[in-house]
Amino acid sequence: MSGPTPALPLALIHGFGTSGRLWRRVRERLASPTEVLTPDLLGFGNAAALGRDGQMTGDMAEHLAGVLRASGSGPYRLAAHSMGGKVALLLAARHPALVAELLLIAPSPAGPEPMGDEDRAQLRAAWGDPVALEKQYRHISRQPLPEQDLYQLVSDGLRASRDAWEAWTDVGSREDIGGELGTLAVPVTVLFSEDDPAIGPEVIRDEVLAKLAGTQGQPIKGSGHLIPLEVPQSVLTALGE
């Protein structure tokens, strides 16, 4: 008699300016005995030195595909936050054998992110500035951030590649990858907050849910943009944990 089917490995993909450390509060609460990866995207975290001038979403998706293949596991359940959501969508479309399902958390849309010129300039200028970074993270959150989490966010922002930082602000966030998503065949769930000041619920409904057929939306209230840190239990519930 065969034993229970092993749980699929889980890969947790961070967003702009952060790193795999974003998932600390989710990882420490995981109940399932499954393999968990928290890779750093091209130009961020431990992959900061690999950041390139003008890098695009596809560059990050291909780098991530290489990391996932090198692990020797898969296909993965992928949970991806913010910018990482856009990267994960392209990864799943280009490399379907690597992805079993997608949980997008407050994701950047496949098309250009509706960000005003002033907000874009402030984001660009925050690179290397700890005061601006702390102000940014406090602004986009709605739950109090413990000092450990705030320190982690700022330190990740400070070690990010300037090339990667500016490339996302000026190129990646404006890019439209929608034309590559026609072959997307994995189930997609979108977890988002009605109170997110960074990527608001109207953007999620109009630019994500409305443009990805069959996608399931899971709205929550009371969290800002940093859902994995602010309300990690919501992520665990969406993952079935």
UniProtKB/TrEMBL annotation:
Domain of life: Bacteria
Pfam families: Abhydrolase_6
InterPro entries per record: AB_hydrolase_1 (IPR000073), AB_hydrolase_fold (IPR029058), AB_hydrolase_sf (IPR050266)
SUPFAM superfamilies associated with the record: alpha/beta-Hydrolases
Annotated ranges, domain AB hydrolase-1: 12-235
Keywords: Hydrolase
Gene Ontology MF: a single term: hydrolase activity
Protein name, as recorded: Alpha/beta hydrolase
